[in-house]
């Protein structure tokens, strides 16, 4: 009998769902002897335990035959997947041919699982993954395009990728067309954000145009903008450090050399008045060195210390600074005026705020003109729930327009007559930046200067 020699499993079931015949292949597939299968309910061999006839659905009734996929259970309780070709007869019985497709089903499920995981990885990746055609049009792009460049996926599909690459970098991506299957790395490809901002990317691209499955250029773009910014900041920091070391060594040596020269001269003099003059000059050199060291200390403290949030009373602060400065040379000739309005609590870093105001007031005293009829320094402070506005105005020597963008640079001196270390306003600007504030200058040479400082109130932060 041909059915007995068939390689596929074949069985008949009567209208009650009981097996009336199972060929040797069916016996082997299910692991039963022929006598064990005879009169066994077909539902006992189905994992879902549902009525097989309802599983066949109405298609069998209408077409009298259908092919379905079903999970079966063997005698040893192991399972397998079978593709069933089923034919239903008028008396309610049916015949089925079963082919074991377990290996194919498992492979298909593994493939679907891999595809699902790959889709999750692509959709949640921080990098942009792109597939380009041979003319560089975008065939596929991952959702990271929205986060990195601000575009929706639908708005870029079909667009030429050059539209999103900075003009000078477009030639780089064309190199990938030269060889199939070779990975090209571009260390810094500049992409254009929707808002016009340049985004620095590290790019890996592989040409798979000859691959019938992919038929495209696969490009992976990793945002390195923060790294580039950090590298640039490091370069600037190293430059500033080199300049700092040079200037510090020079400015520390100058007063020491001056004192050594004065000591040598004093040793050669016999008159008391001349020696006293040299001693006074040495005292001034020591005083200048002390100021310079103090500025270095402030610079170091501002660079490394975290922002400390404490309550600040500006009336107390200004009184303290005024008392410290009133003994400076010529301070008694300058009228000091204050107008402080503080109706709400103000929180910030007290040491940095004191450094800012103290340095600005010290400069106002130091660079005043005494040929004016009424030399003055005016301090006006208004405090709100969001910020403190500090305005320091004087009718001193003023600052020329060409120096307005330079006075906050490290060691900058507007002229040879400038006193101090050249660090004061640099420290002021650095401290304001730490507090996320702003400083502006309005000045008329030989007439007046006004510094306006705004510092955020950290009360609610």
Give the CATH topology of the largest domain. Answer: Heat Shock Protein 90
Helix and strand sequence: HEEHHHEEEHEEHHHEEEHHEHEEHEEHEE
The parts where pLDDT drops under 50 for at least 5 residues are 57-61
Biggest pleated sheet: 5 strands, antiparallel
Descriptive overview:
It catalyses: ATP + protein L-histidine = ADP + protein N-phospho-L-histidine. The chain is α+β, with helices and mostly antiparallel strands and 461 residues long. 39% of the residues lie in helices and 25% in strands. It has four domains: 2-100, PAS domain (Beta-Lactamase), CATH 3.30.450; 125-223, Beta-Lactamase, CATH 3.30.450.20; 226-285; 305-460, Heat Shock Protein 90 (2-Layer Sandwich), CATH 3.30.565.10. It is built from 13 helices and 17 strands. Helix 9 runs antiparallel to helix 10 and helix 12 runs antiparallel to helix 13. The longest helix is centred in the middle third of the chain and has 44 residues, at 225-268.
Explain the layout of strands and helices.
Elements lengths: L1 H4 L3 E5 L5 E4 L1 H7 L3 H4 L14 H12 L1 E9 L5 E10 L5 E7 L1 H23 L3 E5 L5 E4 L2 H6 L3 H4 L13 H5 L8 E10 L5 E11 L7 E8 L1 H44 L3 H33 L5 E2 L2 H12 L9 E8 L4 E2 L1 H17 L9 E8 L3 E8 L29 H11 L3 E7 L3 E9 L5
Parallel strand pairs: 12-14
Antiparallel strand pairs: 1-2, 1-5, 3-4, 4-5, 6-7, 6-10, 8-9, 9-10, 11-13, 14-15, 15-17, 16-17
Helix pairs in contact: 9-10, 10-13, 11-12, 12-13
InterPro entries: BphY/WalK/GraS-like, HATPase_C_sf, HATPase_dom, His_kinase_dom, HisK_dim/P_dom, HisK_dim/P_sf, PAS, PAS-like_dom_sf
Organism: Cytophaga hutchinsonii (strain ATCC 33406 / DSM 1761 / CIP 103989 / NBRC 15051 / NCIMB 9469 / D465)
Pfam family, one: HisKA
